[in-house]
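Render this sequence as a predicted structure.
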Amino acid sequence: MLCDPDVRCVVPPWGGETAIDLVDLLDWDALAAADPTWLVGYSDLSTLLVPLTTRLGWATVHGDNLADTPYEPPAGLLSWLDVVGGKGPHRQQDSGVVADFWRFEEDPRATRWKVTGGGRWDLCGPETLEVTGRLIGGCVETMCNLAGTPYGDVAAFGREHADDGLIVYLEAAEDEAATICRNLHGLRLAGWFDDAKAVIIGRTKAAAHPQLSQREAVLDALGRLDLPIVFDLEIGHVPPHMPLLNGALATLTVDDDVREIVQHLA
């Protein structure tokens, strides 16, 4: 489908577990010769989104899967349809919403997320932040397995875009905090943050470790880098979902009055 000129966008129904078994079976020469096609999703789809961007230069969308598409984004966020269908710039703000999925038996026709509380982007490091860089990232549990391979060479991607720098985003699906901590250290050692200007961390329901929270896991692995870290964005396994464009030039602003990210395809 990615090589079919009649297919302009591929949106799998949901993520998965072992997309890594596909990356070395894809015909990368055929993909390089094809016109770029949108691939949209999150979770294990990150395993395909990242190499399509880092190896081919395609913009890919870390956002809703097809099963999530009926849900309307809350105020401040865009749907993936807005992103792939418009030229941009794509401006999104902190929605303040923490939500969950409706079970099918609760509401089979749900179009609004089940709101479970409120939240706010939380900047760790400087008092305010305004930074511009190329977006790249995905699900921690899948990214850590690509690091050090030709399919997750974010260090090389960073060198390629050294003039812009990177904004690296990550989110934990379900692994407990000690495992996430080890995975983040692995990404650090693989050079994922060598050209980073900031790190974005998505909300998670993944379990803490008896001696380590999920936030502490991030700080243990990445705190030594002296990079601004923005926690609790609407990306990943806690809805709603903010679509992020791998490869886009993004400006991230966090201060007392403004919490927004603006993405440009340039």
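Summary. The first strand starts at residue 9 and ends at 10. The chain is about 20% helix and 25% strand.
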